[in-house]
Amino acid sequence: MTTAFDTEWTCFAVTLEGQVAHIKLNRPDALNAMSRAFWSELPAIVRDIDDNARARAIVISSTGKHFSAGMDLQNFAGVGGDAGARGGDRSISGEASRRRLRSLQDAFSCLDEARMPVIAAIQGGCVGGGVDMTSACDIRYASADAFFCIQEINIGMTADAGTFPRLCRLIPQGWVRELAYTGRRLPAEKAREIGLVNEVLPDHDAVVAHALATAHEIASKSPLAVAGSKVMINYAREHDTAAALDYIGVWQAGMHAGSNVAESFKAKQEGREPRFPDLLPIRQGI
C-alpha cells in the first residue's frame, strides 16, 4: 500500500523520523505559496498519517526564506467568472463558492482533528493562508526573523479559511482586530509575548530542531494519553467547564489505560524508557 512517506508530492516532502512525521512545504522558489495541489495534498498526507497511526506526532516546517506566502495568486484566476453560469443566478454560484471554501477550510481542520499533536516550525513570512494553517496546529515555534500577517485585508478580502475562529482563541481579540484591519506584520518576539508562539529560536535550523525535539519527546509518551489530552483540550476550548469535566469523566471511564500507567511505573523502577502501544489504525467503512 502506498503511504504518505513514499508518494511524490507536488507541494510537500514527507519523512518519518522515528515515530515523528515531518511534513515540509517544498516550493521555496514560489515562497511556498499554496497552489491548487496544496489543498488536496495536505489533508491527504495528514489523514493518511492519522488514520493509519503512522506516527505519534507531526512536525510541519518549510523550506527557503519564508514559511509561506499564503494563497497562490494563480488560484484567483477567473474568480467571479461563474457569476452568470446559471443564467445570471448569483445564488447558485454563491452556493458553489461556499462549498469550495469549505474544502479549503477542511484542509486545515484536519490538523486540529488529527489524533496526534501537530507542531509548526515557522521561519520568515507566515502570510495569509500560512496564518490559517499554523493557527490550526497544537504548538507553534518561530525563528527570530519570522513574522505573521493577515494578508487578506491587503488584497481586499476577509480572511476565511480559519484565521478568525482559531486566532481569537489564541491571542487577545484586540490583537486579532488590529492585525485583521491593518494587514500589519506581527514580529516573532511580539507573537511570543502575546501567546501565538511558544518559543522564538535564533534561525530556521534551530526552530526545526526544537520542533522535532519536542515532537520526539511527545512521541515517547503514551499515545493514548496524548490523544486523550488533545481531545479534552479541544473539547474544553469549545464548551463550558461543567461540560468539559463531564466529558473527561466519560473519556476516562471508557479509555483510561491502567496498563499504560503500570508500564510507566515499571519502566521507572527498572531504569528504562517505557514502551507504549501505538494507536490503532482507523478502519474505513463497515
Topology:
Layout: E1 12-17, E2 20-25, H1 36-51, E3 57-61, H2 90-113, E4 118-122, E5 125-127, H3 129-135, E6 139-143, E7 147-149, H4 163-167, H5 173-182, E8 185-187, H6 188-193, E9 199-201, H7 204-219, H8 223-238, H9 241-255, H10 258-270
Parallel strand pairs: 2-3, 3-4, 4-6, 5-7, 6-9
Antiparallel strand pairs: 1-2, 7-8
Helix pairs in contact: 1-2, 8-9
CATH architecture classification name of the largest domain: Alpha-Beta Complex
Q: Name the CATH superfamily classification of the largest domain.
A: 2-enoyl-CoA Hydratase, Chain A, domain 1
| Structural class assignment | alpha/beta
Number of domains: 2
C-alpha termini separation: 20 Å
- SSE string: EEHEHEEHEEHHEHEHHHH
Percentage of residues assigned to helices:
40-55%
What's the main sheet like? Answer: 6 strands, mixed
User: Which CATH top level class of the largest domain fits?
Assistant: Alpha Beta
